[in-house]
Amino acid sequence: MNPKYLILAAAAVALLSCKSEMKEEKGYIGPSQIVVADGKMTPEVLLSLGRLSDPQLSPDGKTILYGVSYTDIAENRSVRNLYTIPVEGGPAVPLTKDGKSISSARWSPEGDAVYFLREGQLFKAPFKDGRLGRREKLSEVPGGIDDYKLSPDGNAIIYVSYVRSAVEVPSDSDPALDKAEAYATEDLMYRHWDHWVKEISHSFVASLGNGVITDGLDILGGEEVKYQLPNGPFADIDDLAWSPDGRYILYACKKLEGKEYAFSTNSCLYLYNILTGETSQLTYGGGYDTHPVWSPDGSRIAWCSMERDGYEADKVRLLMADVIPADEEEDGQALNPVIDNLVDLTTDFPYNVEAPLWAEDGKSLYFCSLVDGVQALFSVVADMETAYFRLTSDKLWFDFASPFGVLQDGTLLTTYMSMDFPPEPAAVNDNAVRQISYENEHILKQLDKHETISRQVETVDGEKMLTWVLFPPKFDPTKEYPAIEICLGGPQGTLSQGWSYRWNYLLMAHQGYVVVLPNRRGTTAFGQPWCEQISGDYPGLNMQDYLSAARMIKAEPYISGVAACGASYGGYSVYYLAGVHGDVYDCFIAHAGIFNEEHMYMTTEEMWFPNWDNGGLHEYAYTPGETGPGSDGETFGGIRQGGSPWSSAPKAKRHYALSPHNLVKNWHTPIMCVHGGCDFRVPYDQGMAAFNAAQMMGVPSRLVVFPNENHWILKPQNALYWHRNYFAWLDRWMKASDTE
Which domains does the chain have, with CATH numbers? Predict the structure, then answer.
């Protein structure tokens, strides 16, 4: 061939390569290339990991779309971009390299385009040959879009945005006071989680293809009261579901406000008719109804449901009902369907159901559940109430999320994780697991290996308690190591094979600690009786469970001492144990912990928590208009408050008498108190009070306050400072040869 043509061909290839090369937008953050020194996990290594989330299966079942967040500690921010990877595995392909985060990416019904959110607005980009084309902005919604769901035909969306609440601001009464900052209310639930509730979530319907969306039709627009949809504080879009024909929106909503919203957990299912705007109620009474899903043919619905109103940790059942079509009106518009033949598919299933997904044939559902210390996958046959099957072996020490897709051969696509690696997409079939992506393999493979075991610790009443134990890398039983006992928050929850970017057990083990994770009373993976025992007994058996686990590990010849650390209820546990432990523990750390239970009852926001768990143990009841005490010793202001400080219930009286602040005179062990200034679940003055009390008792103590963080520590540099304080305090009292 003529050399001239070879040169021209090479130039053409180079030109094409330049055109196809994706540009990095200013502010883009890519994967970390951190080099791990000495095989040791550090806080810096932890924060360098990519955080993969929200996988979506393409309509043809061949490709997974997902997002990954990367962190720049120096810039104190993270940016999330989009990737694809073949279901069969292979290299991940970046779709975007934006300098601002992209979220909620969804395939079009045909798989030829991708929708996503950026800076609170909806975009669409064509997808061809594994790449995204020029993006089109589809919305200019004032205040932005928080999340959305495409209709089955792709012609409309439900989206979540925010509207003004009943909480007043100065400019409501005088527009000239637009620079004044104040909130005024005459009812409860005026703040939630980390924000003052001047706005609440609403859901809107809008057509696509009719120009840029600026305002949709408010699904709750016909209501006289300002309810929230989805429910706060996190406004989960999965509480809304399009019907397969796109004519209806099924949604879960707690149509309560003020005190009723604060004390009740009763959300119900409703059906919204797209054509008529009519809303009908499908379920009544009880506790939470959440996560509704339609069968593929629209003939059935299934949802997660709790039975008892006011009990946030009730067993989560999987309910199902037939959808009965209604007759048409004279104008040809269909009336709302009704439901019939309601059944509980999990009557004999002793654990909680999470995130159900219908099989394509509509004959069964898949879900995940925490069972015996791990989160496993299950299926249940729709026409057989007790026919449920475990799909992942109990020998697999992983936590599996509910499937996000099912392949034609029955393979489930899910994400899985363990204490040793963060979530990755995986394929599960016949108890075999095939990992699909390896987002952090280049970092994790540099880390030294360690061992995790499970132990059955005998409790004071003769029960067996699953306790995970992690050993440091290069563990030598002839040497001595300090131990960290983790006190679980919740109080309901489970210490399973999960991954956390704050309470990271792998990181703790790599710092030279034996990490002890007791699944004490109140954990949810061991049946409802084990879970429910903690309610009304905060100072009781679960605290003895912690002491049993601590004494178990302390008896080992390789343990030099034990520290107790925990957050939220785990922080309460630390404060309580500090007053009763004697000489079991050598150091304490409490994050966002409850210190004064009386003050907590009157300053937290979700009142159903303390009203049940502090000794009320009763369903919600309210008679509007009443003031003062009722005749039963548990009703005040018309609200049944058996868990309140003024209740006559024996368990409530004991609960408050043994509040950690009443045991401070027994404190003698070094303690660090950590709190977020925007924590409205456990207000930050709880941490201040605990620290002040420790100081007044002469106990070595440290206070760390993050003024702009909530119950969690989220900003990168704050997270790094949290970790450094955590390990510095532990090392000071657990490793040093000379302590104060």
Answer: 25-133 (no CATH), 448-596+659-734 (3.40.50.1820), 607-658 (no CATH)
Structure confidence by residue, pLDDT tens digits, 451-479: 999 999 999 999 999 999 999 999 999 99
- Considering the candidates 161, 165, 568, 573, report the single residue annotated as catalytic: 568
Token pair in block for residue 453: 């075991």
pTM beyond 0.85 = yes
**Would residue 289 show up in a list of annotated catalytic residues for this protein?**
no
pLDDT digits (tens, 9 = 90+) for 670-712: 999 999 999 999 999 999 999 999 999 999 999 999 999 999 9
Catalytic-residue membership of 711: yes
Task: Give the span between the Cα atoms of 313 and 523, in whole angstroms.
Answer: 10
Active site residue 679: yes
Looking at 78, 679, 701, 723, which residue is catalytic?
679
Which two structure tokens, joined as six digits, stand for 22?
A: 């994706």
Asked if 226 and 200 count as a contact pair (C-beta separation under 8 A), the reply is yes
Could you give the residue ranges of the DSSP H alpha helices within 126-285?
A: 170-173, 258-263
What would the two tokens of residue 323 be? Answer: 């959808």
DSSP sequence for 171-196: HHH-GGGTT----B-SSS-SEETTEE
- Backbone CA torsion sign across 690, 696, 697, 700: positive
Coil, strand, or helix at residue 691? Answer: helix
Predicted pLDDT at 334: 64
Cα(22)–Cα(98) distance, rounded to whole angstroms? 10
The type of residue at 91 is P
DSSP string, 124-138: EEEEETTEE---EE-
Buried b (16+ CB within 10 A) or exposed e, 573-612: bbbbbbbebeebbbbbbbbbbbbbbbbbbeebbbbbbbbb
Of 516, 674, 482, 512, the closest CA to residue 595 belongs to 674
Contacts of residue 134, Cβ cutoff 8 Å, sequence gap at least 6: 125, 126
Asked if the peptide bond before residue 31 counts as cis, ω within 30 degrees of 0, the response is no
